[in-house]
Structure formats: structure tokens, C-alpha cells
Design goal:
Distance between the termini of chain B: 50 Å
Protein name (chain A): Cytoplasmic tRNA 2-thiolation protein 2
CATH superfamily of the largest domain in chain B: HUPs
Subcellular location (chain A): Cytoplasm
Radius of gyration of chain B: 21 Å
Helix content of chain B: 40-55%
Low-confidence stretches of chain A: 1-16, 488-497, 499-510, 519-524
Organism (chain A): Suillus subaureus
InterPro entries (chain A): CTU2, Rossmann-like_a/b/a_fold
Strand order of the largest sheet of chain B: 5-4-3-6-8-7
CATH architecture of the largest domain in chain B: 3-Layer(aba) Sandwich
CATH class of one domain in chain A: Alpha Beta
Order of helices and strands of chain B: EEHEHEHEHHHEHHEEHHHEHEEHH
Distance between the termini of chain A: 97 Å
Radius of gyration of chain A: 28 Å
Shape of chain B: globular
Mean pLDDT of chain B: 87
Number of helices of chain A: 17
Number of strands of chain A: 14
CATH topology of one domain in chain A: Rossmann fold
Strand content of chain A: 5-15%
CATH topology of the largest domain in chain B: Rossmann fold
Mean pLDDT of chain A: 80
Pathway (chain A): tRNA modification; 5-methoxycarbonylmethyl-2-thiouridine-tRNA biosynthesis
CATH architecture of one domain in chain A: 3-Layer(aba) Sandwich
Low-confidence stretches of chain B: 343-349
Oligomer: heterodimer
Largest sheet of chain A: 6 strands, mixed
Structural class of chain A: alpha/beta
Structural class of chain B: alpha/beta
Chain lengths: 524, 353
């Protein structure tokens, strides 16, 4: 009988249903047992499935363990530093924690009576890939009112793995001088503040402002988040704060490798989301990156941190089955955080929905992006997200859209402006006033857009007593901002004397005053 | 509440909010910034030189109608020195293209430009109505897209033009970037954000509306009261592209800059050199002489499939090999005329009314 319930319907006339799996229901690996799971039209039994995921994990991780590739086909694995795991309590990071423990830490040889490994610590059998492993967790409850603090839940999960050290962090640490002192070793904890518009949002010019008031780290973080113009920006900012907190912590603890538990599905989502937010230049870093804080001299230090996503070939479905069959407990993420709308959430819904009709889309996105690289040499590291950035971001934005008639580039075109709009148009050269100091040149396209791109749904109304400036994460001022003039005495750039004289000269009435000014300059 | 004044001239009353910048501006400033931005796109990319013969791909829809109007305006305002033509392709879709071509014919009179219409029937011996009759609505966009590209080049060659400009806007380009990533089309991904493309032996193709939002094009057409045809194609749209379009609209609703952000991403990356080296070299089709990455170009392959009654089996390269395995194409099937860069076909000039 046909699916519509009419026995008279010809079977031939119905649309043939595509087989969910290949020709056989037996496991494609051992070919003995009946399959228990279908992964992209291939059937696997329970016994074969776990080693396959383990193998994919090792295949993604191990080529990056040794500092240098060497010539050996099967080199002995030895990392140059510690291992750091970024743990969110979600599915991917729970699996990563378990596989890393079982593969690299649980098989250590028994200790002798003195508590030392038998044969000595230098015996090849006793030399582990990484000397130690720390598990970093960033608690974000400070960002949302009424959100449950899950640090203790996470701690109880990590304590099941005795070889791992638990390092709890809080999202507000990004605005905490004491945390910065701990990870950077620097006692100077400057902070950059940005001017806010009357609506309480960061201004388009990203002008640096004077410090308004002393805020606690939680207040500073909430002020920062509330000054962002869209839900997309808030979601992106939280993701960046979490990432950079873990990067700095891992680096300060001598880690050579940092593992994120992103599955193939979440990597594809974050790639598409990043591209949709203008992050195409850092597409390589979304997959794998080598990171180090840029030193004050501008050069990169030797101890580079390799950021790896070893579940990059394992889909979310495979992760879920792996966790279920291996009894891995998953704390899960807070629903409140998940509920943030914006480009990241839209992309997730889109990719997961598309996967039903076009099952290979998830892996296609990741494979396609693996074949891409940035076009130009980076002009530096973005102050906010600590990823490579392109030069001339603002110039590109100015080139594609006209936002003001005072732009020099428009001078020749203004002759064609319709006459009704010429009334208030001041085509004279604007007076030379000191330019406001801005952060624009220190940010990548994506971060610049995060801070400035507004929603189409109108701007929010400012709350009574809203501040006129907001602090930025503490690492924005980690190096060179003194030299770049963004901070110094107070928070304003100290203008060079000659430059100041030129500016002032425009407002002076006669040469005598100018000469007097030049005389005074000697004593400045 | 007092009316908001224009953010640009600070004089007139703002009547619209620009989707691209979020600024509230007056109508005249909108016309000025829209046209000037297109002018900057053209001049900064050095798209044309004085004396160039430029064909505007005209479908009668909003994008190509606004493009024809703006190109004519800028050509006169800034003395580009271009000879402008309208070039239309008649796909043979009854109740859709025949109506939109009437709009193009009116545009020809309104803008005083020569018009050339080239039909699929004339070039391939098949109309889209006949193709859909054979293959159904599924995948018909593949045939239409491949045939149109080649038809535009052939039409342009007949007009002896140096350049074709099309009305692809920022939304179209952002959508194509997403599509190419999702379907793994690395070759197209590498070139889809280029403002100007030129294949070997073919005419340059440019997209002066590369940074113009679709919503602004609609606003421009509306406020200028331009005469355009606004019906969607009656044959089902490409389902996959439909998904990408819906997604892009959602992104734009969440943050309007998403469209331009995707284009910036597309411009910021490129295909790795080692991957480029593995891509097929460009050659010419052995049957019709058009550019191709295989022995036969896609249009000849699709046409052969139609002629042999196996049209559904030639959508993919694998299916093409399957068809080849059955046997060579019979000698008596219809083929596309040999492509020459400068053939001569009569051009319809605007009547003096």
C-alpha cells in the first residue's frame, strides 16, 4: 500500500525514498556485526565506532604536537610545553577532555615506593607528550543577571580526571587589573575608554575618552556589553573575551598547545558566522592558529601557542553518540546564553537545518575554507581579538559609502549635488582642529564592525544617568599604546610640539602672537 | 515630533533611512550619494576608457533598469565618453520574458540607446518553455544560467562591444559568496567578488552595483519613477540559492552591514596557490569555440543532452561521462554556431518618435 493509504496507487508512481545507508546493514569496518549508527550513508557498529572517532581525533592533533615536523614518518611525540584544554561543559569539550585523558595521560606507568615513576623520569617509557594539562573554564554568569554560576559543576567534572589541573576564570577578568598582572607579569594595568554617543552606544569614530569613574570588573564588563549596538555584537564580544582570556592564561602557564572541543559542525557554523561578520581575513585562524601576544617591541616571542581543534573531522551527531556510548557526562550550556539572537545563532539554525536536506554541507563548508588564505600580509594584531588584521579598514569603508560631505574625496563631486541640498552645505575647508584620538587603526574589520555597525531597528534609548564613556578589555592597551598616543598622561595623546604649533597657528590672529608662541615653545 | 533633518545636507527633511549606512537622509541627497558611489566604484576600478562600447545587460527588471539609467546619467555627467547599448536575452518564457522585454523596448525609447535582443531559440534552437517541458522545473535554472552567460557574450560580440555591465548588486554578490562556500565551488569563490572578470577571448564583464544594496536600488527606482518589470520568473527558482537568499535576508535583518561584511570577507581571502595549481586550465570548446575548462563547454554539453533526450543526466560531470560511455553524439544533432569575437548581427536602433 502506498504512503497515502490508497491501495490502488501504483508503487512506481511514488517518489523513491533515498536509502539512508549503503547496500549493507552490516558495519562497513568489521563487516561482521550489524551496524548501530549511520554516518553519511556508511553504517558502523558500536565497537568499531569509538576507535574511529579516537583515530580521527589523533589524526587531527598529532601532526601538530612536535614543534618541528622532522623527517620521521612516525615521530615520537614530544611537545615543547604544557597542554591547555578550553572547557565549556558542552558536548565537544567534554569528549575532548575524555579522549585526551584516555589517550595521553591515563596510561602513565605505576609509581615506585618513593612515588617516582619506575625506571626514572627520563626513561623513555615515562616521558609523556605534555608535562601537565590544565583545563580552563570561563564562567559567563557575570554578563547576565540571574544566570547560574556553574563553576562548581564544572569543577566536579574535571576532578574526575586527577591528572588535570582546573583553572577557573570569569568573563569579567577581561576588565580586571589583578588578572592581567597575573598573566602578563606587568604591574601596569592601563585601560582604554571609548566615548559614548547620547544613545549610550560607542561612537562611529571610536574616539578615545577620559576615564569616567572607577568601576569594578563586573560593572566595567556590563558597561562594555551594554554599549555594543547589536545582539550580534554582544554575542561576538563574549566569544572573543572568552577566547582571549583562555589564550593569555594558556600562554602565561607555559602551554605549547591549546585544544578547543569544536566539532566539524560547530567549526562550519563559526566559519560561516565569521565570514558573515566580516572576518574573512582571519579565516585561517578559525580553523587552526599559532598565537603569541605581540611583545612591546612589536616582535613575536618564541613560545608560540598552537591552537588546535582535534574534533574537526567529527560531526556533532558523532560526538553525541560517542558521549552516550562512552558514558561521558555533559554539563551543557546555560539556556540564557544560547538564547542570544544574532548572526551566530542564525547561522547555527541555518546550517543545522540545511544539513537535513543537504547532509554534506557541513563538511563542504569546512573543506572549502581550508583551501583559502588571506590575500595580503597582515599589518599587525588586532587590539581586541588578537588576530591578524588588514591595513586601511576605514579607507575601504569610506570608499564604498559616503557618510559625510566634508570628505576631501568628494570635493570634485559636490558640484553635482542637487541645488535644494546646497543651502547649509559648507564647502570651505574645515578649520584645523586637533583630531580626536581614535582606536580605528588598531582594530580588524570584524571588531571595528562589532563596535560600530548598528541595527536597522533604531537605536535604544539611553538609560538615565548613562555614562559618557565605556572601558574596553584590559589587553587593548597591552603594548605600544603609550607610543601610539592612545594613552599617556591622562588618556589623551600628547601632541608633538611642532604639530601643536601648526594647529594653534590657524587660530592666531597675527604674526606677532605666532612668534610669541614659538618663543614659549622652547619652555614647553 | 519635529521632522528629522537630513544627516548629509542638514537642510532638507529626511525621508528615508539608508539601509547601507543607517543614516536618515533626504531624497536628493540619496540620489546624489547613490550615483556618486557608483561613479567611485567605476573610477576607482578603472572599468572604462573613453571610446569604449559598453553593453548593458537588460532584463527589464529593477537592477538593469536602474543600471541603464545611472550609466546614462554618469556618462553624461562625468563625460566618460562611452557608447552605451542595451542587450537583452529572450529565454523564451511565455508570460514572463515576453512581458519584461516590452519594458526593455520602452527603456530603449526612454534612454535613447540601441537595443539588441538575442533569443535562446535563435542561438540554441530551444526555448526555456521547451526545455522545461522536457526536463521539468527541477534544475531548469542550470540550463538557463549557462545558456544566458554564453548568449550575452555572443550578443555583445555581435554589437562589437568591449564590455558588458550587469546589474548584479551587493546582495547578489554576498549570496554568491555564501553559495560557493556551501557547495565547495572554489573556482567561482575565488573570482565572484571581482568587480571585473575577463576570460580568454571573451568580453569584459563588470558589476558597477557591486556595493549597492538591493533595497537602495528599489528605492532609487521608486523615487525616480523608473519603468521596470517586477515579476519573478515563473519557473521554480533554484532551491539551494533560495536557501542562501533567505539566510542572507535574515542576516541583513539582524545587522544590515552583513551584506557588505560578507563582500569584505570575500575580498579579503583568496584560494591557496597550491589549490589553484590543481584547477583545470582554461581552453576553448572543440565544438563551438567558446571558453571552457573541458573539451566541450557546458552549454554544448547541456544542448547535446537535450538533443539526445538525456537532458537530466548531464547536470554533473559524472553524468556527462556516463552519457559519453553510451556512445558519441550523432552527427545530425543541433549544435551552437561557432563563437567568433566579432560576428555581425543587425542591431535595432531606437525609432525616432
Amino acid at each position: 500500500m502506498s504512503s497515502c493509504g490508497n491501495p490502488a496507487t501504483e508503487e512506481q508512481a511514488l517518489m523513491p525514498r533515498r536509502l539512508k545507508f549503503g547496500k549493507s546493514k552490516d558495519c562497513v569496518r568489521c563487516r561482521l556485526k550489524p551496524g548501530n549508527i549511520v554516518i553519511r550513508h556508511a553504517v558502523y557498529c558500536k565497537e568499531c565506532f569509538t576507535p574511529i572517532v579516537d583515530m580521527k581525533f589523533r589524526k587531527a592533533l598529532e601532526p601538530s604536537v612536535n614543534a618541528r615536523a622532522g623527517t620521521s614518518k612516525r615521530p615520537k611525540l614530544k611537545a615543547s610545553g604544557n597542554l591547555c584544554l578550553a572547557f565549556s561543559g558542552g558536548l565537544g569539550s567534554s569528549i575532548t577532555l575524555d579522549i585526551v585523558h584516555n589517550t595521553y595521560f591515563s596510561s602513565r606507568p605505576p609509581l615506585d615506593d618513593l612515588g617516582k615513576p619506575r625506571g626514572g623520569t627520563n626513561h623513555p617509557r615515562n616521558v609523556s607528550v605534555w608535562p601537565s594539562c590544565l583545563v580552563c573554564y570561563v564562567e559567563v554568569c557575570g554578563a547576565f543577571a540571574g544566570m547560574h554560576d556553574r563553576t562548581e559543576d564544572i569543577r566536579s567534572v574535571v576532578e574526575r580526571y586527577p591528572s588535570f589541573e582546573f583553572v577557573p576564570l570569569r568573563i569579567e577578568d577581561a576588565f580586571d587589573g589583578s588578572w592581567w598582572t597575573k598573566v602578563s607579569g606587568s604591574n601596569i594595568t592601563p585601560q582604554v575608554w571609548l566615548e559614548l554617543s547620547k544613545e549610550g552606544l560607542i561612537t562611529d569614530g571610536l574616539h578615545v575618552a577620559s576615564k569616567v569613574t572607577d568601576l569594578t570588573p563586573v560593572e566595567a564588563m556590563r558597561s562594555y556589553l551594554s554599549s555594543l549596538p547589536t545582539q550580534t555584537a554582544i554575542s561576538s564580544a563574549l566569544q572573543n573575551l572568552t577566547r582571549v582570556l583562555i589564550l593569555h592564561t594558556a600562554h602565561s602557564r607555559g602551554s605549547s598547545h591549546l585544544l578547543f572541543g569544536s566539532s566539524l559542525t560547530s567549526i562550519s557554523i563559526s566559519l560561516l558566522s565569521s565570514i558573515s561578520q566580516g572576518g574573512g581575513y582571519a579565516i585561517r585562524e578559525e580553523l587552526q592558529e599559532e598565537w603569541a601576544p605581540v611583545a612591546a617591541s612589536g616582535s613575536k616571542p618564541n613560545n608560540v601557542l598552537r591552537v588546535i581543534r582535534p574534533l574537526r573531522d567529527v560531526t556533532a551527531k558523532e560526538c553525541a553518540i560517542y558521549a552516550w556510548w562512552n558514558n561521558i557526562s555533559v554539563v551543557g550550556r546555560d539556556k540564557q546564553r544560547r538564547a542570544i539572537l544574532g548572526i551566530a545563532a542564525l547561522t547555527k539554525n541555518f546550517v543545522v537545518g540545511l544539513e537535513k536536506d543537504y547532509p554534506s554541507t557541513v563538511s563542504t563548508i569546512a573543506r572549502t575554507c581550508e583551501k583559502l588564505e588571506p590575500k595580503d600580509v597582515p599589518s599587525g594584531q588586532c587590539r581586541l581579538c588578537k588576530r591578524p588584521m588588514q591595513s586601511a579598514i576605514q579607507e575601504w569603508k569610506d570608499r564604498i559609502s559616503i557618510r559625510s560631505y566634508s570628505d576631501d574625496k568628494l570635493a570634485a563631486d559636490l558640484a553635482h549635488i542637487p541645488s535644494p541640498c546646497r543651502g547649509n552645505l559648507d564647502t570651505r575647508t574645515p578649520p584645523q582642529v586637533p583630531p580626536l584620538l581614535a582606536l580605528t587603526d588598531f582594530l580588524c574589520y570584524s571588531c571595528h564592525t562589532t563596535l560600530t555597525s548598528r541595527s536597522s531597528r533604531g537605536v535604544k534609548q539611553s538609560a538615565p544617568g548613562v555614562s559618557s564613556a565605556t572601558p574596553l578589555p584590559i589587553w587593548v592597551a597591552d603594548r605600544g599604546l603609550h607610543e601610539d598616543g592612545l594613552i599617556g598622561d591622562g588618556t589623551r595623546r600628547k601632541i608633538p610640539k611642532e604639530e601643536m604649533l601648526d594647529i594653534v597657528a590657524n587660530f592666531l590672529i597675527n604674526d606677532q602672537e605666532l612668534r610669541g608662541m614659538r618663543y614659549l615653545q622652547r619652555f614647553l | 515630533m519635529a521632522p528629522t533633518s537630513c544627516s548629509l545636507c542638514r537642510d532638507a527633511k529626511a525621508i528615508l533611512k539608508r539601509p547601507k549606512t543607517g543614516q536618515q537622509i533626504c531624497k536628493n541627497c540619496f540620489f546624489f550619494v547613490f550615483e556618486t558611489e557608483v561613479h567611485h566604484t567605476i573610477t576607482e576600478s578603472k572599468l572604462f576608457k573613453p571610446g569604449d562600447r559598453v553593453a548593458i545587460g537588460a532584463s527589464g527588471g529593477k537592477d538593469s533598469t536602474v543600471l541603464a539609467y545611472v550609466m546614462k546619467t554618469l556618462n553624461e555627467r562625468y563625460n566618460y565618453g562611452l557608447d552605451l547599448f542595451l542587450l537583452s536575452i529572450d529565454e523564451g518564457i511565455t508570460g514572463y520574458r515576453d512581458d519584461s522585454l516590452e519594458t526593455v523596448k520602452r527603456n530603449q525609447q526612454q534612454y535613447d540607446m540601441p537595443l539588441k535582443i538575442l533569443s535562446y531559440d535563435e542561438l540554441y534552437g530551444w526555448t526555456m518553455d521547451a526545455i522545461v517541458e522536457q526536463i521539468g522545473k527541477k534544475n531548469n535554472c542550470t540550463f538557463c544560467g549557462v545558456f544566458r552567460r554564453q548568449a550575452l557574450d555572443r550578443g555583445a560580440a555581435s554589437l562589437k562591444v568591449d564590455h558588458i555591465v550587469t546589474g548584479h548588486n551587493a546582495d547578489d554578490i554576498a549570496e554568491t559568496v555564501l553559495m560557493n562556500i556551501m557547495r565547495g565551488d572554489i573556482a567561482r569563490l575565488g573570482r565572484c567578488t571581482s568587480i571585473c572578470t575577463q576570460g580568454e577571448d571573451t568580453i569584459k564583464r563588470s558589476k558597477p552595483f557591486k556595493y549597492a544594496y538591493e533595497k537602495e536600488i528599489v528605492m532609487y527606482a521608486y523615487f525616480k519613477k523608473l519603468d521596470y518589470f517586477s515579476t519573478e520568473c515563473i519557473y521554480s527558482p533554484d532551491a539551494y540559492r533560495g536557501h542562501a537568499r533567505t539566510f542572507l535576508k535574515d542576516l541583513e535583518a539582524a545587522r544590515p552591514s552583513a551584506i557588505i561584511d560578507i563582500i569584505h570577507s570575500g575580498e579579503a581571502f583568496e584560494v591557496k596557490e597550491e589549490i589553484k595549481a590543481t584547477q583545470k586550465a582554461q581552453q576553448t570548446c572543440k565544438r563551438c569555440g567558446y571558453m571552457s575548462s573541458n573539451d566541450l563547454c557546458k552549454a554544448c554539453t547541456l544542448l547535446e543532452g537535450l538533443e539526445r533526450g538525456m537532458a537530466n543526466s548531464v547536470i554533473t560531470d559524472r553524468a556527462r561521462k556516463k552519457m559519453d560511455a553510451i556512445g558519441p553524439a550523432p552527427d545530425n544533432i543541433r549544435t551552437i554556431p561557432l563563437f567568433r569575437s566579432t560576428p555581425t548581427i543587425a542591431v535595432e536602433l531606437p525609432s525616432q518618435s
